[in-house]
Amino acid sequence: xxxxxxxxIDAHGGxxxxxxxxxxxxxxxxxxxxxxxxxxxxxxxxxxxxVGLTSEWASHHPxxxxxxxxxxxxxxxxxxxxxxxxxxxxxxxRSSFAGHTLxxxxxxxxxxxxxxxxxxxxxxxxxxxxxxxxKVEDIGPWQEKGETWTRLKVTFPADVATHSTVQTIYVxxxxxxxxxxxxVEIAGNTPGAHYIDGYxxxxxxxxxxxxxxxxxxxDGQAMAEPLVVSVDLSAIRLF
Length: 239
Description:
Blueprint: H1 3-11, H2 15-18, E1 23-31, H3 34-37, E2 46-52, E3 58-61, E4 69-73, E5 76-80, E6 86-91, H4 108-124, E7 135-144, E8 147-155, E9 166-171, E10 177-184, E11 190-202, E12 205-215, E13 229-238
Antiparallel strand pairs: 1-2, 1-13, 2-3, 4-5, 5-6, 7-8, 8-9, 9-10, 10-11, 11-12, 12-13
């Protein structure tokens, strides 16, 4: 394992401890401009999220005012009613975003795909750095907020559904995540700067509970507004 990856993972509780769990659940509150822009305002403002830790899947419940439950995997998205009946599904969901820009509206199933990709990636980071096929490269220091952060370029294999193949994480001197950059491929490669805070200890794993995402400029600096997405987590549990 890359020495910096080892430091980062150890700072978050260690790989052995992480591998003793298979599922993470949390209460989720979200805000920001993205949801209205995509024609899905309010649908996931206050919900619960569950993600897999040993394979790529995620679920939100309730998914909208109908009380549906979403189930995301890279190859299939389903929405089910309270009785478990499939009310909507989308096969090969990534291909449905072809030609999309930031302003292109999403269907409910496409929202479920985005939300699944996002929360699975966020809640499995930084332990994803040790996953098979993931490549990392130390790309040097970064000055921000009066601190010096170390940057790590992360390249994901083709079988991982995430925002973009190449991403960048920033960590402080203790190895804790401070920022996470990516280009949202399914929204016209829109560049984002994702700030991470509010660490809490959950059963021996350090998990950030607060996330704020802003547009990223070509020089790597984040714009002060608009707030694209806010993520607030509570009642986090590992199983």
